[in-house]
TrEMBL record:
Renumbered residue ranges of the record's region Disordered: 1-43, 232-258
UniProt-listed PANTHER family: SEGREGATION AND CONDENSATION PROTEIN B
Organism from which the protein derives: Mycobacteroides franklinii
Protein name per its UniProtKB record: SMC-Scp complex subunit ScpB
Superkingdom of the organism of origin: Bacteria
Stored Pfam families: SMC_ScpB
Gene Ontology biological process: cell division; chromosome separation
Keywords per UniProt: Cell cycle, Cell division, Chromosome partition, Cytoplasm
Membrane spanning residue stretches: none
Compositional bias annotation for Acidic residues: 28-43
């Protein structure tokens, strides 16, 4: 019988761990704040003026609307604080009759030019569109034409330089346009437009001269890049600045500027 009594007393001992179990509701409270996955200790200290200036810088470089959540993750700030700051920037621009308008659409936040200044913006863009394309722009346009749809990185790989500025110029002039995203990388792909055909006097892409085979595949470009250092003919290109006789330094062709 004493053994049975001991067995009855054992459950009383199991009540001692009740204190740790009180942490259960605390965990659920943390889960309830799942709107912001990162804890307060992961937020970066940032003053109000600095936050607004940072958001303005980000909004100036985005090509498409960006959500408040995406901005919050970049600046490491609470979502509600970022949303309030975006709204404040919009109000400030409106109050001082700025030519820039920050608006929230279904896709997110983005800066736009105000309608009242459209005539001046159009004049600037049209004047620029009448100027001739640079050699860099023409070469980039050719790569897009023969490899479309193609990502920006693939165009850069073919040309061997950064083509961001040139691609923006071609987009602005309406010669190329977005054509979905790459299935593997998710990168935006580009194609030529009807305006491109019109400017070249073509009815379809099939009228383009048959020079596509002269543009190597990306795999071939990667192989060439890896073996370039072993090729004697390109020894000068691989030389570091100041190396070798004379004032010859390794040329740095890295960025196209249009």
């Amino acid at each position: 019988m004493s053994e049975q009594t001991i067995a009855v007393e054992d459950p009383e001992k199991s009540t001692e761990p009740d204190t740790p179990e009180e942490s259960g509701p605390q965990e659920s409270v943390e889960d309830a704040s799942g709107e912001v996955e990162s804890g307060d200790d992961e937020f970066v200290p940032m003053g109000e003026d600095e936050l607004i200036s940072t958001l303005e810088a980000l909004l100036l470089v985005v090509d498409t609307p960006i959500t408040a959540a995406s901005v919050a993750s970049v600046v490491a700030q609470p979502l509600d604080r970022v949303a309030e700051a975006l709204q404040r920037i919009s109000e400030i621009l409106t109050d001082r009759s700025s030519g820039i308008d920050l608006r929230e659409t279904a896709d997110g936040w983005r800066m736009y030019t105000r309608a009242r200044y459209a005539p001046y913006v159009e004049k600037l863009l049209l004047d620029g569109a009448r100027s001739k394309l640079t050699r860099a722009a023409l070469e980039t346009l050719a790569v897009v034409a023969y490899r479309q749809p193609v990502t920006r990185s693939r165009v850069s790989a073919v040309r061997g330089v950064n083509v961001d500025a040139v691609m923006r110029t071609l987009l602005m002039r309406g010669l190329i346009a977005e054509a979905g995203t790459d299935d593997d990388s998710g990168a935006v792909m580009f194609r030529t437009t009807e305006l491109f055909l019109e400017r070249l006097g073509l009815t379809s892409l099939s009228d383009l001269p048959d020079i596509a085979p002269l543009l190597p595949d990306i795999d071939v470009i990667d192989d060439l890049s890896e073996n370039l250092g072993d090729e004697p003919r390109f020894a000068r290109l691989n030389r570091t600045p100041g190396e070798g006789a004379g004032s010859d330094a390794a040329p740095a062709f890295t960025v196209d500027q249009d």
